[in-house]
Amino acid sequence: MFSIKIKMNLFRKIFGFSIFIILTTLLTNYFFNAIFLEKFYTYRKKELMMKVVETGKYIYETQSEDSYQNYVYDVKESMGIDVEVKSIKKSHMMGSHMMMRRSTNVDNSVYNKFQVQEFLGNDAKVLYYAEKISEEKQIIVRTSLSVIQSHSHESNIFNIITALIASLISLVGGVIFSKRITKDISYLKDKADKISKLEFPDNISIPREDEIGDLSRNLEKMSNELSTSIDNLKSFVSNASHELRTPIAVICAHATALLEEDLDLKEKRRYHEIILKVGNEMKELTENLLTLSKLDMTVFKVKNEQVNIKEFLDDALEKYDILELEKDLDISICIKKEDVFGDSRLLKLILNNLIQNALKYSKIGGRVNIFEKGEYLFIENSFDGKIEMDKNKLFQPFARGKNAEDFKFDGMGLGLSIVQKALYLGNIEYDVIIDKEIFIVKLKIFDSKF
Q1: How confident is residue 397, by pLDDT bands cut at 50, 70 and 90?
Q2: Which phi and psi (to 5°) does residue 412 adopt?
Q3: How many C-beta atoms surround the C-beta of residue 334 within 10 A?
Q4: What is the rounded average pLDDT of the residues 272-289?
Q5: Which of 57-71, 142-156, 235-249 is most confident?
């Protein structure tokens, strides 16, 4: 019922607007015809008559009588203008005779000036122009102004018929056009209703290059972004609740024990250390979850700027130098192209996490190599044990390799997930290679432009 109402309203608007345009066009046409058409017609005739006078004088004075008569005939047939060369005395007599019979509007003694003669009884008008050729001869041109008047009635009838036909065409076109428009509007309305119920349909876009097509594509984009945001929110809440439940339980249990049990100073210190350790883990987990959530947001604006990749690497190594000292690692950096283009925030986040992972999971006395090869930056480290996991699954939140569990490395398994999100946002190609006991990450950053 609602869609029918929309169709009817839209049809009425389209049809009413079409009728308004037609009536406006007709009234404007009638207005300009009534005021300016006769004036414009007379103005154009005057211009033609002046050209005819000049040409007629030239032919009469320089060419033969036959050439002149041919010109007079051609002008009469093509332009409706009469041309005549008469003696001045005879013309005056004839003019007086004609004025007695028809009108007194024309003065045949006036030269170089247009005059209009009105014939009595039939409202006919003739435009005259006379010019001296010599003391005895004059050239007279005249044309009827009654043509435009005689056709004004037919023109009005034609305009009315045109308006009726145009109205009929607008009626048919309005029906067809409104049905097409309202069909797509009803389609978008149904999709919007589903989105309002948090149902996110696919393929909302309508293949049209107009405002309706733009609306459909924006609606599809909004649906996808809203769906992604809700999924990210659910994932964040689920991951946070799952990972925070255990440390919260540990903190509560030890805090309760500190309040209720009679513990010696050494035991209390051990409980305090456990609470501090678990609290720091919760802090790290919360920061990582917030970072993941921020990177998932579609409003994250990626910048394109020149950054020094060598400085980022040095800062990351300095930040985690405690890991390097604890494991007595051998670190080498070989980079010639120090400047790259990218988002400094994303590149810093990526390199910090990859350097931390390389140092954390390296075996004691192992080696970490950072070098460039072609368009790629390589970060490789040796590790103990086995990963025994598909390399693609390593990028899933909270995923950890078997070696991380066997050797009880600290961490929540969010580092590579954060790296993957940042790489995706930065449009950076990457790959992970696991070759026996060597873990390699390669990043295509030396020509990255986004």
Answers
A1: low
A2: -110, -5
A3: 10
A4: 79
A5: 57-71
Decide if 184 is inside a domain.
no
Domain that holds residue 403: 301-444
Q: What residues have CB less than 8 Å from 72, skipping those under 6 apart? A: 56, 82, 83, 84
Q: pLDDT tens digits, residue range 108-117?
A: 567 888 888 8
Amino acid letter for position 159? N
Do 139 and 274 share a domain, yes or no? no
Instruction: For Cα atoms 152, 157, 160, give the angle at the middle one, nearest 5 degrees.
Output: 125
Q: Could you tell me which residue, 413 or 132, shows the higher pLDDT?
A: 132
- In the DSSP assignment, the letter for residue 398 is T
Distance between CA atoms of 167 and 360, rounded to whole angstroms? 80
Residue 221 falls inside a structural domain: yes
pLDDT for residue 250: 80
Euclidean distance between CA atoms 300 and 136, whole angstroms: 96
DSSP-assigned states of every residue in 151-179: THHHHHHHHHHHHHHHHHHHHHHHHHHHH
- Is-contact 224 41, C-beta < 8 A? no
E strand map for 309-437: 330-334, 339-342, 367-373, 376-382, 429-435
| Residues with Cβ within 8 Å of residue 183, at least 6 apart in sequence | none
Q: Which residues contact 251 (CB under 8 A, 6 or more apart)?
A: 275, 278, 279, 282
CA dihedral 226, 345, 381, 387 (to 10 degrees): -10
Q: Phi then psi for 333, rounded to 5 degrees?
A: -125, 125
Q: Which amino acid is at 395?
A: F
